[in-house]
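Hi support team,

I submitted a single chain yesterday and got back a structure, but I'm not sure I'm reading the token output correctly. Could someone confirm the output below corresponds to the sequence I sent? I've pasted both exactly as they appear in my results page.

Thanks,
R.
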Amino acid sequence: MVAAAWVLAVQAAALLRGENSKQPLGLSNQVKSAYPFFHTSDELSQELQRLSTSCPGLSVESQTSTGGEVTIEIVNLKKEGSQPKNKMYFLFGEHARELISPESGLYFLRSLCGETDTSEYLNGVLDDTEFRVVLNGNPHSRRKVEGGDFCLRVNENGVDLNRNWDEKWEPSPEFSPADTNPGSRPFSEPETQIFKNDVTNARPTSFVTIHSGTMGMYMPWAYDMEHLAQRNNKAMMSMLRELDEEYCQCPFGAAGKEVGYSCPGTCLDYVYDELNTSYAFAFEIYVGQDYREDLKDRWQEKMRETENTAFVQLAHTEYHHIFHQHHSDFVQLQSKMVRRDHSFRDPDDCLAQFNPTDDSSYHQTVDNWARVYGDLARRIVNDITEKSGGSVLALTQSEAKAKLQLHFQ
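Hi R., thanks for writing in. Yes, this is the structure output for that exact sequence:
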């Protein structure tokens, strides 16, 4: 009953926005016609297929859900002959309206393959890191966004894919926004079932999920406002602090603590906890210019807090209004006291908050974050090497996992 009510609510919101539910997916493409620097879903797929024939070590596989409802393309990129210390998993595009998320992933792949102006900066990253990438994690709903439904966050069943993981999962409280619907049960959705199976089989050393709608760089935990991840927390916090200062100048830290509200059922917490992944992050990579000044103020305060301590996590009460007004789309607010259901917003307003709308901002964003992804990979490799004494590759998988666990306590 609850899940059905959520679906009806999302469908009602779509009708209010004038969406014709019988219109074939991709029949019109308002994004491409107005903003040609974005790729359509078909173009994203075509680019991956092209790279699989032109980029050494890059392969693409399609994984289809058990019921055949959805197919997800997954990229693997490993330098031929290398023995990478770091297996890095990226999840892009969980939320359909965040078009810039998959765009940054495609640019990163193209840069690793030597095709962009950023390629020289990323030279050597593939020597020690193997990448596994879900580029377009919500393909059916992304097509609807491309057709003009710019506020659509959830999948085709009206479920928030980033609330549907089996880590502190909770049914949605009464009066919560329709676009934070966690589904009827953990992994109820075909997309998250594919993600779970693939990331479990991959057993990555590091995991990153990419979002937009604000600027932020986060680590576990997201599920509540009280707890900071303990395992390997100093290394992760150090990486966030350094990368944030150079590339983002935005809020950083434990997701739930930093923004001041909880988000159960996220991929970030699940992969860190259930799969024992040593490095887990969630990045918010873009917000419209009108939203940025308050976020930079919070970053400056945070840097002053941490000058004489390893890290300070709890966001000051005086800054809570920032995150309520310019909330993180990764840990989107559920409270009935302060809620924003984007389903009823003006579509153009959504597009401008979550995505660049001019060519210059688009290219600055994808270049900047491709550098972040590459620098993060380098820092992880350096940390693994330091903690393992350079011997991880000489161990069996189980021995390496046990050894790393010991060092990361």
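A quick pointer for reading it: Confidence is low (pLDDT under 50) at residues 1-27, 308-326, 333-342, 391-404. Let us know if anything else looks off.

Best,
Support desk
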